[in-house]
Amino acid sequence: FSYNESLVCSLDVSKQDQIGNRAWTSPYHCRCMRQVSSLLRIMSARFSVQPIGRFAGASQPVKRPKEFACFSYDDNHEFHLDDSSLKYYYTPQLGADLSKGFDTFQKLDDTGDDHLDSLLKTIAAHEQETGKKIDANIVTWRGMMTKIMAAPFDQMDGFEMNATLYQDCIFIEENNAYKIASRSNEGNNKRRRGPPLEVMQFWGYKFETLSTLPAPWAETSRDFIENRENEAVNNKAQYCSVVRTGIGKSVLCLGGEVDAIWDSKPEEKGSPINWVELKTSAEIRNPGGMENFKRKLMKYWIQSFLLGVPRIVVGFRTQDGILVEAREMETHRIPDMVNADPNPKWNADMCVNFAATFLEWLTENINDEGVWRIRREPQSPTIELFKVEETGHGDILSDEFKNWRIKLALGPSDAS
Q1: How far is residue 35's CA from residue 263's CA, in Å, rounded to a whole number?
Q2: What is the pLDDT of residue 189?
Q3: pLDDT tens, position by position, 67-125
Q4: How many structural domains is the chain composed of?
Q5: Phi, then psi, of 253 in degrees rounded to 5
Q6: Distance, CA of 320 to CA of 322 (rounded, Å)
Q7: Is residue 153 assigned to a domain?
Q8: Contact indicator for 233, 105 with CB cutoff of 8 Å
Q9: How far apart are CA 234 and CA 192, in angstroms?
Q10: Is 137:170 a contact under the CB 8 Å cutoff?
Q11: How far, in Å, are 85, 112, 176, 185, 193 from residue 182 at the CA level?
Q12: Strand runs (DSSP E) across 108-249, as ranges?
């Protein structure tokens, strides 16, 4: 169905002529909108998040994430099919002021809708090398899977994603309009305490600058290492890992930014990589602070788990942004640490089981072309799935990617 067709069909043409523009504020318009709303409800499917107890038990099978490709954005956020923006972890200097350099922050403008373009370019380049389509039935960014896996225990935040089925694979992106609206609402939250949101976000990027080198330690000057606090902060440069992994019956291709590497990448593709995820958090000063930190550990763990990141370094800071501790945590130990509490706030196995069950449901319900919306309202006990475009793939898939896949399907002689 289409929104416009539903509206036009339910308004009598002669009445439109009589009332002109007033059609959109008349009882006829109200009736039309009710009809569209009813049609949406009829044509949508719902997945129940609650009760979460049904996802308890041993974790469903999970395949270790293996990197098969990567790409970089440079300091101008230009795309490169290489690892040129890879950073190397080096212990930060404690006592650093995380606010220093805020006025010269070279901040990425991410309000534009980039869809899956960079991920699809990287997949296509890999397929051109191998001569065959990647083995995955879901392709998306790591951030989308994080939202899905966290859903059983993250009641307050909603999300919206767009999805399309192409060549037996579901491609999922964030709904950019929803992202921008949510960000605006978050910034306007008058009840937030503490420094402005943009300053706290900067602290995270500053910690990354303080904790990384552009080359291995042996190739970096002592002067650079000792003066990282004076380096301009630029979040436009990123290294992105593209991995193949599996959760339950679903095989996923995920792309996501990686902050740094502990040593160096192994020569053999698919080998485990000693990635490091960098996070900042308020220093823990009381039991309430510890409870808040353990809640945050859920997303820390999910993000690292999905890309196969074995180590997280948390920079603890004072309320005014002074770095007081850099604590290393092994990703695989986090679930046991949380479960040691008599009343744990989240459970890793339940996150995995929820994701496995939801992805299987999604695969069953997204069964033809068009553009689908995956939506969860804040505090809603369900995730809703409905069509927003009856045919095509919207802008989720680039023409370049579709043309490549057509060539690949025609055979080796045409797929060059």
Answers
A1: 60
A2: 65
A3: 999 999 999 999 999 999 999 999 999 999 999 999 999 999 999 999 999 999 999 99
A4: 2
A5: -115, 120
A6: 6
A7: no
A8: yes
A9: 26
A10: yes
A11: 29, 15, 10, 5, 18
A12: 138-141, 159-166, 169-174, 212-213, 238-247
Strand 260-261 with 250-258, pairing: unpaired
CA distance 380 to 364: 22
Question: What is the chain's mean pLDDT, rounded?
Answer: 90
Euclidean distance between CA atoms 233 and 104, whole angstroms: 7
Within-domain flag for 325? yes
d(CA 233, CA 239): 16
Task: Assign 11 a pLDDT band (cuts: 50, 70, 90).
Answer: very low
User: Tokens standing for 153?
Assistant: 């225990």
Does 212 map to a domain? yes
Q: What is the pLDDT of residues 319-333, one digit of tens each?
A: 999 999 999 999 999
Tokens in use for 326? 């850099």
253 three-class SS: strand
Cβ pair 244, 262 in contact under 8 A: no
Residue 110 structure tokens: 């991410």
Quickly tell me which residue has 């960014």 as its tokens.
141
**133 and 35 inside one domain:** no
pLDDT (tens digit per residue) in 337-350: 999 999 999 999 99
Domain that holds residue 224: 57-138+192-368
The answer to the question of residue 168 being in a domain is no
